[in-house]
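Single-chain item
Fold in token form
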Amino acid sequence: MENVYIMEHPLIQHKISLLRDKSTGTNEFRKLIEEIAVLMGFEALRDLPLEDVEVETPLETCMTPMIAGKKLAVVPVLRTGLGMVNGITTLVPSAKIGHIGLYRDPETHEPHEYYCKLPDPIDQRLIVVTDPMLATGGSAVSAVDFIKEHGGKNIKCMFIIAAPEGLERLHKVHPDVQIYVGHVDRELNENAYICPGLGDAGDRIFGTK
């Protein structure tokens, strides 16, 4: 699928395998999520625009490239997307951070918005939406919908694992959005959980249920 990028780097795959292990504790799980976000972000941000600026080195003055424009906005889908934010800001500390709050209806599995706060002006920024898991695709589609409604145009989405169903749905509804995925898992089960998956990412990141 055009604009879909599956991360095959050995370090990413190794760390995802550690995430899957049910014996991985909260502290290690949280660190792994952040480390994977750094590795995925390195690839996803390879097309950030640059401009030459004048810098004085210890030897002379030169023109050298730096990130141009209004730079970056990171928009985690609450609450699990928060776990990936530090990974992106490690790469781009000046990035602004927005938040989109969604919860999933236990019966229909469809998302409902309860919070949306985006950096202004959002239309001039590269927007990276973070969420460790892409299951049905409902939350991701809604998050991108909200960003576009607020004027966002240049959008990337980052997921550590994804179900084929959710990936297909997001790509179909928003074919212009670049989607970065650490690993595509086998399927969704009858409860709309990714299999083999890694459990509830929010519970494992924050140590709460």
The two ends are 35 Å apart (CA to CA).
